[in-house]
Amino acid sequence: MKLEDINKIKKMSSKLLLTILIIGMSMVTGCSDDLDVTPESVWKIEDFYKTTSQLELALNGAYGLLATDDVYGRSFMYMDYGTDEGYYTVTWNEAYAIPLYRHTTNDEYVKRLWLNLYSVVNQANNILERVDPSNFENEEHIPYLAEARFLRGFCYYQLLAWYGEVPLRTASTKQTSDNHMEVANQTEIYAQIIEDLNYASENLNLAAEVTPGRANKMAAHGILARVYLKMAGYPLKDTQYYQKALEECEIVMASNHDLIPSSFEVVTDPDSGNEVKVVLEDGYASHFLSYIENRYDQVESIFEITFQANLLNLGVSTHGKIGVDNGLSFKYGVIGDGYPLTNNAVCASVKMQNLYEMEDIRRAWNIPEVQYTNAGKIIKAWPLSAQYGTGKFRRWEPAPDGTPPNSDGTDAYVLLEDTNNPDRNNTGINFPILRYADILLMHAEASNYIDGPNIAALESLNKVRERAGLEGFTLSDTEVATKQAFFEELVDERSRELCYEGLRKQDLIRWELLDDALEEIDALIKGDPAYTGNGIQVAMLRASDSFDPAKHLTLPYPEQEVNINNNLEQKPAWK
């Protein structure tokens, strides 16, 4: 693409984003009937949505809102902590109070997530209302409508999962009075989500036929499976939806998506004479390197939020903090040090060290237990320390064995991000929303619930395990021999495979296990031989100390939204 084309896209995108903000902000700030001056740099809304280029820009602006720091660029990585997978370890402030369960109705991130999700909904509503089929030939507008409905359904799923019952806005906000809307009940909201995602699944193209980072047919089916599992669990607990989840998973399993394979070889250790398994290809690590290096793996990745490539692919400039706040520790505590900064605002929990079998290749990737010290040495990172970083979205890793030290005596390391202009504070690392491994584990969960342990459920579970270098289970194995045992194995397996991908808290909530998980973490921290009660360790206990199941299974409504919506009353537990 030529430079002048990129600049043109940037200018058009800036106009569009301003348009979106002017339209979307009315939901949280209201609008004035006297505001009748149209800036020359903004398209009139009645003149927009008439060409495929305009629809592309409108949708790209919506994706850009999902890629902000207030959603997947940063906040979601924090929101999913405060579980058995990890904790927020910053001791000098509690800026991100949600993972500590110390947030209030005035919390800035409670408000910003709501605003961004509803702004995407509003943009989707504008597209759905204003597209005139007579402006398009051969139904070329249909995939764009499907994409708008996918985004609306996806955002309403997130709103319902995180906030509970919310206003159901299926028309764009046009005037101040539109702000005043009561919450809809769960059944109404789920019905709209299902209708939107079904339409998307019928009218979107396959992943190989769309721009990476955009919605596709199998993403709609996969998110529907996730929605149905949520409906089958807490708080609706309508177990008929396990069958629906199973059916949606089977549609994706019949597609071209698959796991990136691993390969192994059994060799004899010349020293001990024992047989050992050697990893020839690590499919798990390879897949996550695709997010870090901005390579689109459209085999295992079904839907992801993109960052670095957005200017060229979507015409929207975005960045994230993936790998900065949740990566491998690098010179922890050095203020102002440069790339590849990792501030270790969150870290892996003490439970993770024993969750994996030692031969599980995911252990070395997700919790490698290494840190780069201020003195330039790569040493072990210990549980119950702030340096016990997560490796899934790492910016760096130790150089291969045998690499000599640098000339100054510091240890060599490898930079992983694909960038010629590294940024200490921001990354282009993409965030996975839906992977094929998740489809397999959802399929196994639904199948086990319906029929108990069975061959189909076991095959899905074993595909994930075997890619990780583990032996597959048989139905006679005690770990999976009963319905409850199979479920408990899945609870752990989802964490081994999907940790730090923004899914654990919602999983624990729908299983009604979040309280138990936090109690377990509290006991593991206090019972660890390394526990001394220092400041970092006490900080790790904040979530379990503060969690209240009467309040914290959903977020409060943002206080500002309650103030401007006459029909929205704050939840009783948050008054």
Give an overview in words.
The protein is mostly helical and 575 residues long. Helix content is 42%, strand content 7%. It has a two-stranded antiparallel sheet. It has a two-stranded antiparallel ribbon with strand order 2-3. The chain has a two-stranded antiparallel ribbon with strand order 4-10. A hairpin with a 5-residue loop joins β6 (370-372) and β7 (378-380). α1 (3-24) crosses α5 (108-130). The longest helix has 23 residues, at 108-130. It is globular. 49% of the residues are buried. Mean pLDDT is 90; it is low at 1-40.
Topology:
Blueprint lengths: L2 H22 L1 H4 L22 H15 L8 H5 L6 E3 L19 H23 L11 H22 L22 H18 L13 H16 L8 H13 L9 E6 L6 E7 L1 H10 L8 E5 L4 H4 L32 E3 L12 H6 L3 E3 L5 E3 L15 E3 L14 E3 L15 E5 H16 L3 H13 L15 H16 L5 H7 L3 H14 L7 H6 L1 H5 L12 H6 L11
Antiparallel strand pairs: 1-5, 2-3, 4-10, 6-7, 8-9
